[in-house]
Description:
Helices cover about 35% and strands about 25% of the residues. The protein has a domain at about 1-75 and about 190-220: 3-Layer(aba) Sandwich (Rossmann fold). The chain is globular, with a radius of gyration of 17 Å. It has 7 helices and 10 strands. A hairpin with a 2-residue loop joins strand 4 and strand 5. Helix 3 (about 95-105) runs parallel beside helix 5. The protein binds adenosine-5'-diphosphate and magnesium ion (MG). Adenosine-5'-diphosphate binds near residues 38, 41 and 42. Adenosine-5'-diphosphate binds near residues 12, 37 and 40.
Amino acid sequence: MIKLFHVYKTFDDRTVLDDVSLQVEKGNICCIVGPNGAGKSTLLKMMFCQEQADRGQVMINSQNLTRVHRREVPSVRRRMGFVFEDLQLMGRKSVLENITLALTIAGTSKKRGQHNMDRVLTTLELGSRKHEQTSELSAGEQQRVCIARAVVSDPLVLLADEPTASLDATLTAAVFDLFRGMSARGTTVVIATQKQDVADQFPQHRLVLNQGRVVNAINP
Ligand SMILES: Nc1ncnc2c1ncn2[C@@H]1O[C@H](COP(=O)(O)OP(=O)(O)O)[C@@H](O)[C@H]1O
Ligand SMILES: [Mg+2]
């Protein structure tokens, strides 16, 4: 479960998040929607201990991230998957190596890891590319590797920042089917997007941000 309680954040005296609250129950999917610069990525980064709130609380699975010590951060992240807006792949490593590292960090058993790997590579149509260096891949393929890495360990929480920005409609649908399957198995999912059509796919829970403020919400 994810809970944000009256979160504020400023960068250089500029307010980027202004009293944002949100609650996502275990196994639900929530979309954070808003234009460029609305504060979506900053909000996701807070859930991943990559940014700190100036005020307010960020709780993930009853752990208060505002009180987490730096040395505890890796263990918090071990149970999370993050689809980075800027991908953050190891460009000189292969698709398989990038994804396998995520399984190693999460401590997933070999058998389950292999099963998940095969399933994810097939769903994301990466099977034929698995031995390629990721720097050799197209933008869309790289984005799918980033998604595969985030989901392969079946994390408790999946945070996805503009996860389908480089994907066509067919692959976008495949990715969201993957996310729905994970949510059905208990993963809590938060997607940040500036695309209204993406948000429309997940109508149950939504937070609409503009310039750091909540301007609209559905079951937030
Ligand atoms: N590390 C940072 N330092 C200074 N300003 C930042 C930093 N990160 C984000 N911002 C600013 O915060 C605002 C919100 O950014 P962001 O969360 O990336 O928005 P979104 O993901 O909705 O496009 C932007 O104006 C951005 O320039
Ligand atoms: Mg962003």
